[in-house]
Amino acid sequence: MENFARINFLGASGVVTGSKFFIETSEQNIMIDCGMFQGLKALRELNWENLPIHVASIDVVLLTHGHLDHVGYLPRLVKQGFQGKIIGTAPTLAIAEIILKDSAKIQEEEAKKANKEHYSKHQPALPFYTVEDVEKTIALFQVEIDSKWISLSEHILYRFQYNGHIIGATFIELDINGKRFVFSGDIGRRDDYLLNDPKTPQWADFLFIESTYGNKLHPEEDVEDMLSTIITDTLYKKGTLVIPSFAVERLQTLMYILWQLYKKNKIPNIPIFVDSPMGNNVLDVFKRFPKWHKLSPEAYNMMCDHINIVQTYKETWDTIDDPRAKIVIAGSGMVTGGRVLTYLQQLIDVPTTTVLLVGYQAEGTRGRQLLEGAHEIRLFGKYYPVKATIKSIESLSAHADQDDLLNWMSHIKNIPENVYLIHGEPTALDAFRVKIETVYQWHVTIPKLTDVDKVII
Ligand SMILES: [Zn+2]
């Protein structure tokens, strides 16, 4: 084996989304994650460019978890000639399938709409990928064997290790010629409601660590207390509490907390509706993979029995018309699409409504506008006055904060040759770099998009 490896930074380098890292060696060419760029337009447009590598030369893709910014580019990789295996844990591949199919459906609908209304500069507008492209991608999926070292070739081994970010999520260790490359994926938090604590790496010659909250600490909030107060208030007003939620993990966590609050007598028996087709599919992944979370099958069933799962669009309207005080959890988390739009169209101008935002609200989204006190919002082409009360809980994040990240890497027994900070906004990356240099005196690099680093192995 030649004694060097080339690391290509193809995404989540200097930015948060689009995770893609390509490692070339004389034995195998390995891609870690294959995500889509999301957010600002300039970033999203990068998705349309072909990768600056020879795609057909990739032997294998290893996935840390199923979020769109880690798997969303896979169908494009297949379109560009990738024919190898896509390996992930069983729940990661299940989540990836749900997310890719949903993403393809949205892309197809958007292209159709653009062609009908002639607003795209491309004629005809083509979807980024189709459901058929996703089917071809899924055909390459291969489930990994639980937390064991697997050999890819004579001098290359890999291992997936639980890291508690979403169901199935792992960090990936790659041993190349005796040197260990560690890719953190997105790191979860300790004491999560549904997931076990993240495992930690014991050794890393080259560490690639996410920095999403590299400059932040999560606020010390009592989530259960805050929720109880908001729910009591909703009952008193005989109103509706609308919680826009991300379908993967957040929605299931909310279901669990609400069920617990009821069991502990902290809230009365207020009807709870969950309206998210994608959220239901993810709930099913929890049922299929009980070893990957803390809920026992009995607890899972009791939780689901306590909550009304809305199935059809007709039931959405029945729920809106239900005159009782109630809680509705619906996608999407930043109010950019999904069933929550229908609820808000009917309820945002009603003073007894409360909207509770439970996650990061990106710039340019309706969620952000509501958070910043907008007096009206646009839904389905029309403006509606905001008469509802807007609340927010920040601390339900599925990401480790700065302390968690430092703690996670503190288990590494050696001094890494290099630490690459990835998956972060520039301010977070730089603050985290200074922190690591101060605390550990390790060598830290912040790679930029399309950077290539050649390392000795
Ligand atoms: Zn993630």
UniProtKB/TrEMBL annotation:
CDD domains: TTHA0252-CPSF-like_MBL-fold. GO terms for molecular function: hydrolase activity; RNA endonuclease activity. InterPro entries: Beta_Casp, MBL, Metallo-B-lactamas, RibonucZ/Hydroxyglut_hydro, RMMBL. Keywords: Hydrolase. Residues 17-246 form the Metallo-beta-lactamase domain. The keyword Hydrolase applies. It comes from the Bacteria. Residues 251-370 form the Beta-Casp domain. This is MBL fold metallo-hydrolase. It comes from Mangrovimonas spongiae.
